[in-house]
# Entry
Amino acid sequence: MTYLIDRRLQGKNKSAVNRERFLRRYKSQIKDAVGRAIKGRSITDVENGEKVSIPVKDVSEPSFGHAHGGVWEVVNPGNQEYLKGDQINRPKGGAGSGRGKAGNSDQMTEDDFIFELSREEFMNYFFEDLELPHMVKTQLTASTDFKNQRAGYNMSGTPSNIHVLRSLRGALGRRIAVGGGSRKRVAEAERELEQLLLDGVPLLDPRVVELKKLIHHLHTRLLAIPFIDPFDLRYTNRIKVPKPMTQAVMFCIMDVSGSMDETRKDTAKRFFILLYLFLKRVYDKIEVVFIRHHTAAAEVDEEEFFHSRESGGTVVSSALHLLDKIIDERYGGGSYNAYVAQASDGDNWDNDSVLCRQLLVNTIMPKVQYYTYVEITDGPPQNLWEQYSQVPDHHQHFAMQKIVTPADIYPVFRELFKKQPK
Amino acid sequence: MNDMTAKPRHPNALPEQSEWTFELIEQIHQEIRRVAEGFGLDTYPNQLEIITAEQMMDAYTSVGMPVSYNHWSFGKHFLSTEKGYKRGQMGLAYEIVINSNPCIAYLMEENSLTMQSLVIAHAAYGHNSFFKGNYLFRTWTDAEAIVDYMVFAKNYIAECEQRHGIDAVETLLDSCHAIQNYGVDRYKRPAKLSLMEERARQKEREAYVQSQLNDLWRTLPRREEEETAKAAKRFPVEPEENLLYFIEKYAPLLEPWQREMVRIVRKISQYFYPQRQTQVMNEGWATFWHYTILNQLYDESVIGDGFMMEFLKSHTNVVYQPPVNSPHYSGINPYALGFAMMTDIRRICENPTDEDREWFPDIAGSDWQKTLDFAMRNFKDESFIAQYLSPKLIREFHFFAVLDDDNNEKLNVSAIHDDSGYRYVRQQLAEQYNLGNREPNIQVWSVNTQDDRALTLRHTQFQRRPLNQQAGEVLKHVARLWGFDVHLETVAPNGEVISTLEVRREKRSRIP
# Structure
């Protein structure tokens, strides 16, 4: 009696629960690893899985066993040289490792326990650090724009949409089709009448009278065919299609004055990553431009953006000037949707903050889709905050929030990107 | 064909292809079964299951059972297996077979037809007949009930998780796992119970154990008993080797559901105990039979040359024994030693030398099938090696014994593969497979029933070997289960206590 059973389709992923239990147990270590991974990663590369390593000591399951010491007598295979009674030096590593390695398991040095988080798991931990309620991230819907697009013709619609040419063309066709037979017979009858008259048949001949009646009748019928019929009307058909927003550019502007320490930069980075992930859902292609500034602004690569130690005082307007210049030079012409995220601790030269506001209101805001400013500070609002607070009076698509700890990032982000009443 | 040596093709000859189909598996299985029965292999009915690599990893990492309860440690094993497999560092163990009735053997879908045949012969006839025949399995395991019991355990533990929370269950399981090797009876034979009886008894147990406990942990001694209490009866009267059993029965603070979980871990541990004692024999037996059966099929021309070449390549890899100085050396390969010994016993029966007649007068020249069957049934690794390891094999393996005494400055080669060394090497190697020597001897020594309820374990030292550094961690787990202080005394053979480890419970509360 034998059974041959195909189990391939059932019971897949039986270990998924155990895997999840494992991740749950080592949550804090894994979160640390994810945190490290975010630091070491570029903003655009955040969406991949990650290798996580946990010290083997932590994941080991202890059990009673022997350590080395005392007397061990071990039989091994493969003797080539030894004779009974030979004395062998202990292998290096002190008394710890005899040739027979039985038993001394806790003295073996093992590498860390390394495994890979899937992309999904990685993102879960990433968002969890942002205190993201479990499934909310999928509800972050993009404010998609639609555009009306012509899609052929329709039999019904509003009068304003009547397509005259198409309707008349249809009417003509209909008239030809409906009147075709009569017209043919009129022509025949007229030809016949002409022939009769040429042959000298008298006008009162019943055949002539008959033909004249028929011709008249047919003409009447042809005239009764309406020039245009409701059936002929064609309306322009328009459908809504999602606007293909193919490209976007995201500007990351960060204050790198001395007060922006590693922790604050890390917070800023998380904010930028979140913005990137958000935009990634809407656009096929995003370019990221990094602008850092102290007294002077410069466009840099990501590495330098987050890790360079160059520092100095603060003139925020320098960054805004540069931003404006870059938009005009490379992202103008309406082919790009520009987003700006600015992170700063808010400390700026007094008279510069006013300039910043003016720059934003008059020059920059009309060119960008959305501008967010986050102030990463636990102190009272600075003068930049005061000035920026006036921007929303002129432009709706400007938002600003304060972030104190990484846990604030997500709520702030939600606040900044909540759907705007139109 | 004018080649006169060409064998006539067998009517059921397999086509030379590496892709398997259900029909072909049925077909080769028929042939394997025919040959196996011809050799007198007695097996449970077989259930062959086609599975994916991922399912194989699942099975591999949940203690090799088709169902098991959930625990993070299985997830850990899954992750490390998966990592190794994905990187191609290791092939998956291509044979997992469950000691159950019917006997379940897994066929991985990636395998070629040849490998499927190898697995069928190896697992479904080799291991299967071993499970059914070997005395340890006959005594200790119940093939009829194990899958049902695992289902019961999974459901019970899932229910506990719902009622008491995942964390409470997880910590308890952690602690049980830490001492699961000390959850076996070596001498008492368990009664076989059906699932129904098991459920019924579980209810009784809850009530009964609690009533016994009250008796043991009576806090208000009756006056007339005080005199006898002075005589302070030891508890337990005899040392108890089964720590999990002792905890299940006597730990003062465990809730009934916790006792039941201790029992589940203990039962499963007990179930695997025979496998831990018969690794060399079991793998040797299965390997011997896949080799013998497939060769027979080749001789009958059921399988062709290409099939045989692929089979021999796998077989050779499996039975390779790297020498001790090789970087690939990681101890003695049980497949290599077991296969060599099984083959050697057959040789001694069929073509004995003078040396064999001197060493094995009883079996030299006897019927090899009967002799091998007897050996399979009546031994475990330790006694099997002590009985059957021949000088010829000791020479072939170049076995030698090295004595490492930490009182001496150097290691001493105590015996090699020569006339004076055979018996010594054989005895030493047999000892190496004695679980009693491999694992520290730790037993429940006493419980302070009068005062602080502290539990004292005794580690009786073997060859002056110290406990590993994890012992302290394990002891914490024991203390968590016991609920009160736990001491671990290490005792020299003369009875003198050499050292003590202890874990004090700061807060005497119910776990966790």
About this structure: The mean pLDDT of chain B is 87. Residues 195-216 of chain B form the longest helix (22 residues).
